[in-house]
Design goal:
Mean pLDDT: 85
Structural class: mainly alpha
Largest sheet: 2 strands, antiparallel
Distance between the termini: 79 Å
Strand content: under 5%
Helix content: 55-70%
Number of helices: 7
Shape: rod-shaped
Radius of gyration: 34 Å
């Protein structure tokens, strides 16, 4: 005959202290778990921020080099204009067509460095900016990013002017075969252009009798004025902010032992 044992069901309630202790233990466990997850997330995001900062450092380094090169090239363009203007004032433009070819060809080049925005946009848009542990660095990044739109607008201003005013002269009045090489193969010595490629014997300004030289100099002069405004009001401030940001990024990466990784 089977004997059935019924489970023992306690009929008395637990002491309230025992309930309180169990609740406290659950609360502590949840709090510790949440805290550990926050610490882990913060660590991961901080590491991501360091990687983003290093990528930005690389881009800003190339920006700095690019701005310096742009300034040198644009200064050479200014020198080319002054040389052509001197020939014009001395009524000697017809006597040195090779010089005019080289100077005009270089002036017509589009030279305006635009900032790299890949790493910059990633830092701004991914939320990693808030995990950078330097308010000064964050502010510098935002200031630098704000200057990019100005450079783009000036590029449109300058390049649009060249499209409308300079390119038609290049097409109508300069022989293409010599024009395309003269603008890259010369140096300036004693305020004169020295062309380093063979100069065709018959090189000349095409339709020179139809070219309004007064208007030509005015067109080049306006381009020089536009470029001077770009240099002073856009390139130089952007270059200055670039150097400041580069220094802050370098110091930040060195502080976190991430520069050489």
């Amino acid at each position: 005959m089977e004997v059935h044992h019924h489970p023992h069901i306690p009929t008395h309630a637990k002491p309230w202290k025992e309930y309180l202790l169990e609740g406290l233990m659950i609360f502590v466990a949840v709090t510790l778990g949440y805290g550990a997850e926050n610490v882990r997330e913060h660590y991961v995001e901080t590491k991501k921020a360091l990687i983003s900062a290093k990528n930005l450092y690389v881009d800003v380094t190339y920006d700095s080099i690019g701005y310096a090169g742009t300034q040198r090239n644009r200064a050479k363009q200014d020198s080319c204009f002054e040389i052509i203007n001197t020939l014009y004032n001395n009524n000697e433009l017809d006597k040195e067509p090779a010089t005019v070819y080289a100077a005009h060809g270089y002036i017509a080049l589009r030279m305006l460095k635009q900032m790299n925005t890949l790493a910059l946009d990633e830092v701004k848009n991914s939320g990693t900016l808030k995990f950078l542990e330097s308010d000064e660095l964050k502010a510098a990044i935002q200031r630098y990013a704000s200057l990019g739109s100005g450079l783009k607008l000036r590029e449109q201003r300058e390049f649009g002017y060249i499209d409308r005013m300079i390119d038609p002269i290049s097409i109508n009045n300069f022989e293409f075969n010599f024009f395309r090489i003269a603008g890259d193969n010369f140096k300036i010595k004693d305020n004169k252009i020295v062309v380093s490629v063979p100069i065709p014997v018959n090189v000349k300004i095409m339709k020179k009798d139809q070219l309004d030289w007064d208007n030509y100099i005015a067109i080049l002069g306006m381009l020089k004025t536009i470029r001077a405004s770009t240099d002073e009001n856009y390139i130089k401030p952007t270059q200055k902010q670039c150097h400041e940001l580069l220094t802050l990024l370098r110091n930040y990466l060195i502080k976190h032992d991430a520069l050489g990784e």
